[in-house]
Amino acid sequence: MKRLCVILFVWGLLPNIVLTACRSTSESARVLRLQISSDPVSLDPALAEDGAALRLLVNMMEGLVGYDASGKLELRLAQSYTVSRGGLRWEFVLKQGLKWSDGQAVTVKDFVTGLRRSLNPKTASKLAEVFSMIRDPEKSIREEGGKLVIELSRPVPYLLQALAMSQALPEREDVLNTHGGVWPIDAPVTGAYRLVKYEPASLMEFERNLQYWRKQSVEEASHGFEKVKVFIVADDGTAKNLFEQGRIDLLGRVSAYDEPRFREKGWLRTDPFLATYYISFNTSAGIFSSRDARCAVAQAIDREGLVRSLRTGERYGESWIPLGLEGSFEHAPKSWKKPVTHFAKWLASVEADFDSSPRNTQVMEKVQADLKKRSLAFICHSRIWIGKLTSSK
Q1: Domains 4-13+274-391 and 51-178 are alike in CATH topology
Q2: Strands 89-94 and 31-36
Q3: What is the pLDDT of residue 188?
Q4: Is the dihedral angle over the CA atoms 49, 50, 52, 54 positive or is it negative?
Q5: 328 in the Ramachandran plot: left (φ > 0), alpha (ψ -120 to 50) or beta?
Q6: Has domain 51-178 been given CATH number 3.50.30.30?
């Protein structure tokens, strides 16, 4: 089994940049047009792990719990829950009258199916390990007396937060059976919008889910979007041009060069975005099985200089938990900062695989330069993904 060890090098608070444009026609005002830089890796709740997929799924699917606009965890499809005194048994009661977008009732069995499938090793969910406190899903996740029962092998304080992840979303056996055990991209949904069209590397279209449990008032509906068009545009310059031409309403990011001009025009809004950007090592064999070799790379990276070069407000961090969340710390423990003086002896070359978006390329070029300063030959192979390099969750 491949082991990974991670080093953190940026950031506690990352600005979430939103650009908005105005249109005049009433018809187009009911359609939101936005841009993402890449296709989602998968819209299968069990397999979703990249930023594009998670941002789309949060609008397509709802589970037991979720986060409101202020970042507060709240009940969604769960009406209530109880926890045993020792914290090992959790029981959830669903809201009444819940329906999938095709009109079929949402049941406790759907949650049992979804969780068990996500935690099944054959599914190969990259984020299933978050639920490691559930040792035997086939026995510990079940329906009992009309309730969803989850039994843990050890108490943890973050189960509700884990249940907000896509791996805990409901899935239907009939849909899986019809598609050979695969959750299709056009499957029924429980969230506010359903996917109606997908052209890879080009466009995704969504329409309002008329079966959505959270009924809107007439006033809210009149200001809402009936459709959402998501344009998949990898190049930031192309996306910026489409925005300035009024063909896209929202951009997810803007270059440091354009930021002052966009801010002056009133197009730019920034909000804190908690994220951790990291590099992981394969520690199962080779040079990185040595802790000193990992420390050599970790200490060669100029974190402060890296975030300064991005010029978009990030902060460098030495804590796995982003600054601003309970459990984070601003400075690494002294035991992590073991002096390493002979960097060159550890490595003749290092190969790194990473998502080759413009931002990631800029980051890895800076990392490469830092390592070369410490006499490390660093070979960057830019290809779409073998090991997770970024985490914006």
Answers
A1: no
A2: unpaired
A3: 97
A4: positive
A5: beta
A6: no
Tell me the domain boundaries of the chain: 4-13+274-391, 18-40+185-271, 51-178
Cα 192 from Cα 211, distance rounded (Å): 8
Q: pLDDT for 344-377, tens place per residue? A: 565 556 778 887 777 788 888 888 888 877 765 5
The answer to whether residue 163 scores a pLDDT higher than 80 is yes
**pTM for the whole structure:** 0.75
Reported in sequence order, the residue ranges of 243-341 that DSSP labels E, i.e. its strands, are 250-251, 268-274, 276-282
223's CB contacts (< 8 A; 6+ apart) are none
User: Which residues pair with residue 33 across a beta bridge?
Assistant: 229
CATH number for the domain whose boundaries are 18-40+185-271: 3.40.190.10
CA 220 to chain CA centroid, Å, is 28
What CA–CA distance (Å, rounded) separates 57 from 40?
Answer: 10
Note the pLDDT of residue 115. 98
CA angle 70, 74, 80 (to 5 degrees): 170
d(CA 34, CA 59): 14
Radius of gyration of the chain (CA): 23
Report the CATH architecture of 4-13+274-391. Roll (3.10)
Is-contact 245 251, C-beta < 8 A? no
Ranking 100-114, 249-263, 343-357 by mean pLDDT, the lowest is 343-357
Least confident residue range of 167-171, 248-252, 360-364, 376-380: 376-380
Q: Look up residue 28 and give its two tokens.
A: 């187009």
pLDDT digits (tens, 9 = 90+) for 2-28: 334 444 444 433 333 444 444 444 446
Neighbour count for residue 79 (Cβ, 10 Å)? 13
Give the Cα separation of 320 and 262 in Å (integer): 32
